[in-house]
Fold Tetratricopeptide repeat protein.
Amino acid sequence: MPHHPSQSRQRCRQLCLLTFGLFTTLSALAQRTQSYQEPDYHYRNGLELFERSNYAAARYEFRQYLEPRRGQGASTLLNTNDQNAVDAEYYIALTSLYVDEPGAELLVDRFVKNHSAHPKASQLYGDLGSYYFAREDYTKAIGFLEKAVAQGGNNSRYKYQLALSYYNTQDLQRALPLLNEVKLDPNSTDAPAASYYAGVINFRNRNFNEAVADFRRVETNPIYQNQVPNWIAQALYRQRRFDDLLAYTEPLLRRSNGAGLSEVALFTAEVYYQQNQFAKAIPYYKQYIAAAGAKAPGAVRFRYGQSLFRTGAYPDAITQLKSLATGKDTTAQYAAYTLGVSYLQTQNPTYALNAFDQAGRLSFNRDIQEEARFNHAKLLVDQNNGADAVKELTAFLKQYPDSKFENEANELVGEAYFASNNYPAAIAYIEGLKRRTPRINTTYQRLTYNQGVNEFNAERYPQAVANLDKSLRYPVDNALQQAAQFWKAEAYSAGKQYDTAIPLYASIAKGAGEYASKSLYALGYAYYNKKDYARALPYFRDFVSRKADNDEQAQVLDATIRLADAYFAGKQYENAMRYYDQAIARNAPDKDYAAYQKAVILSYVGRDAEAKAQFDQVQRQFPNSRFVDESLFQTANVDFEKGAYQVAIRGFSKLIDGKPNSKLVPAALLKRAIAYGNLQQYDPAVADYKRILDNYGDSEQAQSALLGIQNTLNDAGRPEEFSQVLGQYKKSNPGSTDVERVQFENARNIYANEKYAQAIQSFIAFLQEYPASPNLNEARYYLAESYRQTDDATNALRYFNQIITDNRSSFLVRAATRAAELETQQKNYPRAIRNYQLIISKADDKAAQVTAQLGLMDTYFAMPKPDSAAAIARDVVTGGNVVPGAQNRAQLMLGKVAFAKGDYKTAQTELDKTIALGKDVNGAEALYYLGDILYKQKKYKESIASLLKFNEQFGDFEYWKGKAFMLVADNNVALEETAQAKAVLNSIIENSSDQTIVAEAKQKLATLDSKN
């Protein structure tokens, strides 16, 4: 409602007029009293006291003055010709009212009755009415003013005051006629005010035409000119006289755009908004909002935001709508929905997601709620947040079975399942649909392909083939079709069904692209694994000769060595050596193997001196290689095969004495024993044979040693000694039916059934009863494992370390691996490092070595020795993916080392490489660190953009996904987007399945709430 002039100023003016009138009267009387005699003393005092507002004392003096003049008592009428006496009675009545004397109104009525013709009679009602009007006692004022008006006293002024008294007591029906009379009186100074208040009453009574006429009558009056335009604009708006309104307001606003015309601007804006002329509405809304500030109604700010939105001013629309969207009313729902679309238009899907979520939670407008929920679910799919999208879309289809979005929602469910990596559920959902659109079939091709690859990685090869066949039935995407064919061949190959795999590989290899090249490599291996080296050879050769991409360099180097192996198997020794040399020159991960194989070839072709030199080079160039022992053995064997037994004995002794824990010691002892025997040195020959039987009774050399010692003793003429040797051998190597073996197998069965507490007791009993058992170290290993499974690290390490100390068992590498893990958990890093280094030197296969390297790398990083960790990581990266994910993990380590040093540029490069290698947990952690780097550099928006890739690329990894979105919340806080930060944290709390993450998110949210 527009503001009208302050009534208090009007009352003040009226009170001043009354006081001025009294003052004039009193002054005149005071002048006359100069000629009065002593009897006028009380009258004169009464006037002076009245003038000083001492009404009680004045009344007393006036009464004293009148007493001698009332001969017959108080009821005696005064002579109206006695002016002073009548005035004294007037003042007595007046002052009695002023001091709230009981019966004062009777005095007033009696005065009027007794002196009805006297001017003071009508003046008394009017003055008293004006007095109470000025005091805002409108009820009393009405009583006197009604009488004053009825007697016709000072008619216009009293009518206005009576009308305002009615107005202020909400008796508008009685006020309006009086105001209508006064407003048309050209001689009344109250006419403008009367017109204004008449306009207000007519407006309230919805008599808008009359109201406009009243307001126009005073629109140039200085007192009302700032208020009248607002009333006129509102009246025209209420009548929907939009053309008249614009014709009136726009010229006015062009002349002045001050705050006093803010409501005029508002109604102008509202007209243009209703006419969908949003561009014209904007400046007027802006003027109104600037004046009203925080007092501007939410609905008005919404329409301003809508106008900005409709004209494409999305950032400004967001600014206006943000604060409205958090409410719980209709305006909030519309604002949140519009805000969501605005965020989408400004490429901010994360904030859009939160806005649609807010709009979807409110049910004031069902259509808006439905569309908001659908858009929210659709955005979840777009951001690859599949798990949440599945829940939302399923709930949406259930709540809105006849929705206009039904078809699209059904299509999106499959894509949401795909994004959530819940491929079996997605496949089942699509297979259950009665109607499948081309878009759904495209999704189905991808889903079944991915599920096939997952089954392959889990080594469930028949299931992999079944899913890949489903994918191949819908060849929408040609590249995906080729990939499915390749992995189907890989599944057959992994299942050793090479004859089935080979035609599939061959069909792919005829084409071009990534999988054609991979198929050449796979064909080579398929024939290689069939030991059909002649047919493997051309495929390896073609693969190596192609200019492979950088991503395939590890496979190229591996294929080079396999090509050399194929030539070796075909006895094409020169070609074999050429490719072994090529692998060595290109620094292949298995260059120690290539160098060793080259030496073996040299020995095969009779180039003994070169062979021995090459074996020696292996020992010098690769001192930690597992082929050092082989080289020592083969060097001695070259001499052995030539019959140079004395030289051979020295060579075998070098291995036996220098590498006492080598697995080749039994073979070296056997060869040395034979060499001794050939030289007729029977005692050392017998000693070597006995050493094999005593210490390596379970080795494959034991039977040869038993036969060899028998022949040697016969040659030495001491056959009788063989009986004792044989008896001892039988005692140390009892048959499988013996009680010892049965007892051991029983303990191992208990372990296999995961009854670890009982297994501990069984293995302890076995070790106590059979301390010299050939199964000693195996029993120690399972006993240690049982302790590890029951979280008794101390006892687990005790028995693992016994195996490590013995340093001869086939369980050595496994024991060292477990011990290293336990030592790392207990932060005994130096001991862990020693164990990992032992594994690397002792492991027979490359996978075990790489696994140990990874453990060593992580241990160095934890110590922390970042440079050592980085050195190991670089070795693993260049060594190829021998262990699945090893390259990714090592690449991540390079990024983490650079991050820890604050070298963010290098860290970003290494972390980007990690993500490029594969979509595994290492990539997820790498993406988190990339976001953290940007956050630390205060690049908050860039950090959010980077982290939002999580749902798309790494949605399966709940821990790192939760960490990433908490970092998104931190970025929002830094950007002073607290509402967005809270929305993100609430989403984590509601949706994350990782309780550690949920707890951390709750803590962050509580901290944010405490600051607001």
Remarks:
- The two ends are 35 Å apart (CA to CA).
- The chain is about 75% helix and 0% strand.
